[in-house]
Amino acid sequence: MSLYPSLQDQLDRITQNTRALVQPERLAFSEKTVADLFATGIEDRILKPGSEAPSFTLPDALTGKPVHSGDLVALGPVVIKFFRGRWCPYCVTELENWNTLADALRRRGAILVAISPQTRRQNDFMVGQHSLNFPLLTDEGCETAEKFGIAYSVPQEQREYFQSILVNIPFNHAGLNYKTATEASWRLPLPGTFVINRQNIVTFSEAHADFRVRPEPGDVLAALDTASL
After folding, report:
1. Secondary structure letter of residue 179 according to DSSP
2. Cα–Cα distance between 66 and 7 in angstroms, integer?
3. pLDDT band for position 176 (50/70/90)?
4. Helix (H, G, I), strand (E, B), or coil: what is residue 4?
5. What is the CATH number of the domain that holds 128?
6. What are the tens digits of pLDDT across the range 123-146?
7. Burial profile 133-155: b = 16 or more Cβ within 10 angstroms, e = fewer
8. Residue 33: inside a domain
9. Could you tell me the sign of the dihedral formed by the alpha carbons of 84, 219, 66, 133, in that order?
10. Among 77, 127, 130, 180, which residue carries the largest CB count within 10 Å?
């Protein structure tokens, strides 16, 4: 039995509630988009354990200062969590769950950072609203997510679906300039989790085309125990 509450159980409750409230045709469309994304083979492109981790430099939401991946790894093993945005209840639940695991990370000498394509302002709102105790970094255009093999462009029919439920992806990614934003503003990452050891090697990676599925914290922490050796 895991020492930590099941994250997937929490996410499954969101799914159950959604299915009870949302029209069947919308549910069917959501299932289709997941299947279509899986069919692209994106899960086969995810950076695998044993790979050297890509370097990146991204701005922190609170300070605006650049955060360098090399500096993070120099301090200890790193957990990187890519998420879609503050509009995604699954992402919010996952990050809130990890917010309770600060002590478990500290005991392992590990650092947690979360990365999304949303603007620094959106990340800043999220830190304050959910009292997050780890850095949120902005990956404009999902350029870093692309290096980890998890970036994709939202197809046209799904763009219209997001707009119909008042999820303005370009605004989240480009702010007030969203009406003139480039195609890159429609890029999203798979919600992915990576553990990088102090030799800058990936020791754990998991991401799914189905945004409702995320790795259990206990599995990630177990990978951290290995990464710390």
Report:
1. G
2. 31
3. low
4. coil
5. 3.40.30.10
6. 999 999 999 999 999 999 999 999
7. ebbbbbbbbbebbbebbbbbebe
8. yes
9. positive
10. 77
CA atoms of 205 and 74, how far apart (whole Å): 20
Residue from 81, 104, 90, 78 nearest 3 by CA? 104
Which helix H or strand E contains 178, and what residues bound it?
none
| C-alpha pair distances (Å), 34 with each of 18, 27, 29, 55, 71 | 16, 11, 9, 29, 36
Closest CA to 222 of 110, 121, 123, 126: 110
Of 103, 67, 114, 127, whose CA–CA distance to 214 is shortest?
Answer: 114
pLDDT in tens, 153-163: 999 999 999 98
Domain presence at residue 1? no
Domain, as residue range, for 16: 7-227
Please answer whether residues 173 and 119 qualify as being in contact, where contact means their C-beta atoms are separated by less than 8 angstroms: yes
HSE-CB for 80 with a 13 A CA cutoff: 37
Cross-strand partners of 21: none
CA torsion 113-115-120-121 (nearest 10°) is: -90
Backbone conformation region of residue 79, classed left if phi is above 0, alpha if psi is from -120 to 50, else beta: beta
Query: For residue 104, what are the contacts with CB-CB under 8 A and spacing of at least 6?
Result: 4, 217, 221
Distances, alpha carbon 63 to alpha carbons 34, 47, 59, 98, 207, in Å? 35, 29, 8, 21, 28
Q: How many CA atoms lie within 13 A of 45 on its CB side?
A: 17
Number of domains in the chain: 1
Does residue 2 form part of some domain?
Answer: no
